[in-house]
Amino acid sequence: MQALAPQGGFLSSLKQGFAQDVEREVVRGHFDVSLPSGTQRYYCLLDPKTGKSEANAVSGQLVSRRDGMTGLKGAAVTFYRCTDAEQKGMLVTTGYHVSSSVGGGSSRAATVQGPPQVHAPTVPAPAAGLTQAEVLTVYTRFIAGQNAHDRAAVSDVLLNSNDFVWTQHNGNSVWGYQEAMDAFEKSWEGIWRLDPQLNELRIAEVSPGVAVLITPLLFTGGAPAESPSAVPVRWGGVFVKTESGWRISSIFITPLESGHARPGS
């Protein structure tokens, strides 16, 4: 049985995560990977308007769309590449319907028959790079939730603990999971956006079940009645592995020197 290894780097995965339009893209197939925490299913997406397929697989929850195709909720990009799954014969497309309008036609989509019943071969993922891939997935979900001002999405990736701490760039600290979520939600009443500087992102596993992720990002924020300001900061997060998967246990935001390059510069 062939193994499917995580491929690619942080840059390509994160670029897809922040650029893809999950509301528009549809599922064209899935494959399963055996992880230490259990079997994980990943999905391959396609833009029905352009016919372009996303390179990296994503995790998430299947949803039925009004147009008869299958969408995805809570998508998070992984290091697993759809082309690798196809080449190894792991990609299952049975049960997923893509409108024949893809590529310029005008026919309607076929009727959805529900989630696929055919299961792809389950293969073990190598230990090397697995932690980084899982941590990156959680971080991508965190950034997407923050920019969407989605309390449920953000709360799902934070450690539910009174010891959770969010140290802000102005020096203030918010202790506690519930307190941090309330503070985030209050901040979302105004302008609030995080744009990571992808080419400097680093992930390290400092001990079994504990990892850190450090990256510069551009924080754009402002009160509802004020003009927003963009501030370069360094985002640091401590990730811990729980029975439910990786969670962010601490967030530390520090200012960057004024001469540091901003995202996209």
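Next protein, fold it too.
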Amino acid sequence: MKERILVVEPHRDMARLFAKSWLPALGFDVLIAHSYTQSRALLAEQPVDLILLEIHLPDSTQMDHVAALRRDFATVPIILMTAHGSEQIAVEGFRLGARNYLRKPFTVERLQQALEDALREQRLLKEKEQLAEGLRQRVQELTVLHAVGRSITTVKDLDELLKQIVEAAIHLSQAEEGFLLLSDGNQLTVRAAKNIGDARVQVLQLPVKDSLAGQVMRTRQPIRLNRPHAAQQVKLKTGYLVRSLLLVPLIAQTQTLGVLGVDNVVDSSAFSDTHERLLAALADYAAIALENTRLLQTSQRSETRYRELFTNAHDVFIVLDHDLCITEINAAGPQMLDYPQELIVGQRLGSFTLPERWPAIEAHLRLCAQGQAPTVPFELTLCKRNGGRIKVEMTVRIMPDIDGQPALFCSLRDLTERLMLQAQMAHADKLAALEHVVAGVAHELNNPLTGIIGYSQLLLRDENLSPQTREDIERMFEQGQQASRIVQGMLMFSRGSLLSRTTVDMNALIDTTLEQHLSSETLINIAIVRDLQPQIPSILADPAQMQQVLQHLLNNARRAMEQSGGVLTIRSYAVDDIADLSFDDPTSPLPTNMRGPAVMIEIKDTGVGIVAHELRSIFDPFWTTKETGQGPGLGLSVSHGMIAQHRGHIWASSVAGRGTTVYLALPPKSALLKQL
């Protein structure tokens, strides 16, 4: 906004020069008065930033008007000007408070300098006052919020807490009415209200989907509407009209708990940015208090559930006192030891261990009780009532006893099943060792391959090469690139790759892969059958890796039918629980550890198939049906690793001479998000 200058100049030509030329050119708005009386009238109507005052006016004794204007408009700087001045007049003007003195005639440059000098100080003064006022207002706001915050966080009763939240909101915003809505699924329900009758409270049951309050819930952004005229009221809901409305969300971490709102029904006062900021701060306090109340209730429920879990858990839980006697044991303990509970409680743990091992176990447990030993799981053997022995894994944690003495909370897990599974891990260990070797070999090959490829490229830049030499170097370059691709495949097998997950529609990805990688030229005598279930659940996956897996499996199926032709079938469908799947093909080795919903992909060919004794090895690295030199045999092992990274499964069934089916089972996005 331009600064406004009042020019009090009795000479009209001079006044016109100020109004039409000089001051507009310098960027100022101008008011013109030709007398002292006229200047007072203008100053009464609108404020100005500076007064440019002629000393000699027709309706005022010399210097009287200077004193009067300075007295009544003390914050407005005055610059005196005259053509008949003297040093005495200048001194008197400065004594009365004038900022400067111009003797006519003067140049525009002299005028500009005088204006800038006077206004600079005025601007600094205004800025200082604005900062001081802003600081005072901020201190007042923080004081109120601090008091409200302390009050809210000390209230234990939820109903009383919500009531105080609404009262504080009305106080801070100076509103007529206030309410707090909490989310109840798809509905917002009034949990507290102030100055709202019961009939209007009943109206305020609002849907999340189609209401202003619901919009605040969904977007997590405030809404502020002001309608100063009664004919332009805001409809919060049918039967609930207001003239101004302010709604802010109650957000606790990532969850929106509800909406805090205030409104004016009669008063036309509008809610401002300040009101919105204050109400948002109060809503944050309220959300924290609500969340604390919820956590307290959750903690109380958790205590009850803990007791139930302790009693009914599959693992054995025991509590040892400072003498290492068993003071508590859950129901799984008597079942494991084949003793009734009354014969266990009160006995020392050593009564149920191997005598020769107890001294070492006792020493370790006492160090645990003193906090001097790491609380890592360790193995021990327990003796059953019938003389049998059972190996368990014991984890120890320190817990305060009722009497203030340290106690030990111990969990004992039966290792029988784990020992059985160790045999199944031998194959995985072999693969891990092989991955290490492959990684080392690949890294060793990378450097010479880089040199071969690089020097080949440099040689090919020589325009003087003979055709035969160029052909030989190009062949060397191509073979180097082929070797590099093999090395990259080995590295991908050995270390996997980082996932860049996004929502993936597998049907769309299948269509894209088919179009990009299987053309009519490569599908001689091969028919493709798409059997894609519409609207299967999306998955959360790295689309590039998923496409790489599909591409490899489709290429394998195509190669299996290159000689005789056939049918390539690709299916997609969803299952609620993969454990319920059954297959007509008895060779389909469905993994026994698979549970839960899944998106299924089947890629089936009618090609040469795989003999039974090789089927279990197809996902091992370097297994291949290709001739020597046609590929390293890492495709299926890399695909297996990628599917495993996505928490999925891949397996195959095949009959020699009849074809092969590869199965992919991937968790839907909704199921995977619960696991991550």
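About the second fold: Confidence is low (pLDDT under 50) at residues 628-633.
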